[in-house]
Amino acid sequence: MFKYVAGIIKGKNQKPIIVNGVEDHVHILVGLKPAMSISDLVREIKNNSSNFINAQKFLKGKFAWQEGYGAFSYSHSQIDTVYRYIANQQEHHRTKTFKEEYIDFLQKFEIEYKDKYLFEWVD
């Protein structure tokens, strides 16, 4: 699935650096050219990957991504650190839930938020 998502990104003339995740979320590090907005790219990824998942019948029911997404920007000097973080998602999530991880990101980047507008968390 992660290779398929990387292919979607390449097909949109963007640079997938790494795609990885766990059961309830995916992390994507992408070199985004200014001609495409992050919202357009995420829409394409969600649309195309959900169609693929459903066509392949990977699940018994119909798959659909949850509404929304989080996007954070990093400097070129941080690429290696972010890459390693994404590559180690399985290990990372043995000790931290997606909710804890996401709220940590919001706090780290000093983004104000209201719980009612965040994701529907899977426990």
Task: Provide structural commentary.
This protein has 123 residues and is α+β, with helices and mostly antiparallel strands. The protein has one domain (2-117): Alpha-Beta Plaits (2-Layer Sandwich). 43% of the residues lie in helices and 12% in strands. The chain is built from five helices and two strands; from the N terminus they run αββαααα. β1 (15-22) and β2 (25-31) form a beta hairpin. The protein is globular, with a radius of gyration of 15 Å. It starts with a helix and ends in a 15-residue tail after the last helix.
Please supply descriptive tags for the structure shown above.
123 residues; alpha+beta; Alpha-Beta Plaits; globular
Average residue-wise pLDDT: 92
> Could you name the CATH homologous superfamily?
Transposase IS200-like
- In helices, the fraction of residues equals 40-55%
Spans of at least 5 consecutive residues with low confidence = none
How many beta-strand segments?
2
